[in-house]
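Entry 14. Ran structure prediction on the chain below.
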Amino acid sequence: MLKEEDDLSWYARKADTLRKGIAVERAEDDADRAERVSSLLEALRRGGIKGSLERRTLYTRHLPPGCRGCLGGKGTNAFVTGLCTRDCFFCFNQKPRTDELVVHGIRLAEPEGAPEVVRRYGLRSVGVSGGEPTMRPERLLRLVRALRTLPFRVRIDLYTNGDRLSDALLSQLKDAGLDALRFNLVAREFDTEPVERALRYFDETAVEVPVIPEQLAKMKDMVLRLDALRVPFLNIHELFVCRENSARVAEKGYCSGGGARDALLWEPVAAADEAALSLLLFALEKTARLSVYYCSCRTQQDISSRGMQRRLRLAADARRRDSATRS
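Output, structure tokens:
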């Protein structure tokens, strides 16, 4: 049974309290960085970048299909497990790690409960993630198959580092109805082997990574390799700090850039926007096929606010219907 409190976005409900646990210094205002960011934005505008410069919702060629539902406030996350094969410094999952299934912020005992959550909230896209979801392959496959029982089409993307993605599992995921995969190559130190394998099964094999300012040169090399492999989409995120990763982010020498949003659990690091815009401009100028989409913290705030407002409207509509029925 779903509770009324679930009508709010899970991260919006917790944002105010969890942001208090961010233990990273706030960077001082940097006029030089602001000028560099302004110059990058102007170069992107002249180069024909698509999307919104103000919200930093920007893309070079095509918007990834899996992002459309999310941008419309109709996307959600299915957290298969918190267990993972890696321990990335930027990871925002809670510690100690938990082995549980959570869909739209709601803990489920079985994957077969997911369709009801999706139906109730009128969702149209599901990002299946973790942890590393392939550590629980049967749970993952049951989840995808369960979502395919819905009477309407739901977009399903799998987020993975590729460590445990065998050919057999790729084939099973394809048969189960998965739409696409998104690989975190930063977690694999830019090894593209699992991407190359997945391309044999899924035309829409994409990469999704945070932009690490100190690794910008390696990330530019990654962009060129993905373009050569004919990978269709690369999603890049603004590196952020939250309660769960703040100690390790601080160890890397990063400071918070401030600009906390009321519906997010995190804040961008000071150098993150500039690095992401630099990588985006590089892709715009140097690639022949690859579409690169920048999903910034500003974009994520917009997404979470839309989703929260939509769920509040759905809850209000449900209460009105219940009241009318009782009358």
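The CA atoms of residues 180 and 204 lie 5 Å apart. Will compare against last week's run tomorrow.
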